[in-house]
């Protein structure tokens, strides 16, 4: 399992949205600026997240994106699977290798319980949790300055 840059950008962008009041629609350019992410790349990621029901997109005067559900209901696992594929947590630690119980890689027996633990944590963690962690990190940076 290897997480992509797209997954990182998705989680950062979504945590910014999760920090806003419920139902807030934010234009992509403003969101990208606030999250310090490239807007064209974020646009492609957000289109994918919209197709997976994580985001709602709006056109017209109030154009932009909003969370499709409350941040407490959207798990990190759901986001990662939407961006990197449903089989993300089934992939071998060796990116180029394929392995399973019948054809195990050298770390298969070690990696399998670890990935189960990671999967459990990613299923518990939500966008609301990420938003709180991001706010706490920002406060710590401000306090240090």
Could you explain the architecture of this structure?
- With 145 residues, the protein is mostly helical.
- The protein has a single domain (5-144), classed as Arc Repressor Mutant, subunit A (Orthogonal Bundle).
- It is built from six helices and two strands; from the N terminus they run αααββααα.
- A two-stranded antiparallel ribbon has the order 1-2.
- Helix 1 (5-18) crosses helix 2 and helix 1 (5-18) packs across helix 6 (127-144).
- The chain is globular.
- The termini are far apart.
Helix tally equals: 6
In total, the number of domains comes to 1
Q: What is the class in the CATH system?
A: Mainly Alpha
Spatial sequence of strands, sheet with the most strands: 1-2
What is the CATH fold-level name?
Answer: Arc Repressor Mutant, subunit A
- How much of the polypeptide forms β-strand, as a percent range? 5-15%
Instruction: Report the uncertain regions.
Output: none
Note the gap between the termini. Answer: 37 Å
Summarize the main sheet.
Answer: 2 strands, antiparallel
Secondary structure: helix percent: 40-55%
The H/E string reads HHHEEHHH
Gyration radius, rounded: 17 Å
Q: Averaged pLDDT, please?
A: 89
Secondary-structure content class: mainly alpha
Count of DSSP E strands? 2
**CATH superfamily label:** Winged helix-like DNA-binding domain superfamily/Winged helix DNA-binding domain
The second-level CATH architecture is Orthogonal Bundle
Overall outline: globular
Can you lay out the helices and strands and say which pair or pack?
Blueprint: H1 5-18, H2 28-35, H3 39-51, E1 55-58, E2 64-67, H4 76-84, H5 108-124, H6 127-144
Antiparallel strand pairs: 1-2
């Amino acid at each position: 399992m290897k997480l992509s840059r797209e997954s990182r950008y998705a989680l950062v962008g979504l945590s910014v949205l999760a920090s806003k009041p419920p139902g807030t629609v934010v234009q992509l350019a403003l969101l990208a600026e606030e999250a310090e992410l490239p807007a064209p790349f974020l646009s492609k990621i957000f289109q994918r997240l919209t197709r997976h029901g994580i985001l709602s997109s709006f056109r017209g005067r109030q154009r932009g994106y909003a969370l499709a559900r409350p941040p407490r209901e959207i798990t990190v696992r759901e986001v990662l699977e939407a961006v990197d594929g449903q089989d993300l947590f089934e992939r071998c630690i060796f990116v180029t290798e394929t392995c399973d119980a019948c054809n195990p890689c050298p770390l298969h027996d070690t990696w399998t319980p670890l990935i189960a633990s990671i999967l459990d944590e990613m299923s518990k963690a939500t966008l609301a949790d990420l938003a709180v962690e991001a706010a706490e990190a920002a406060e710590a940076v401000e306090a240090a300055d």
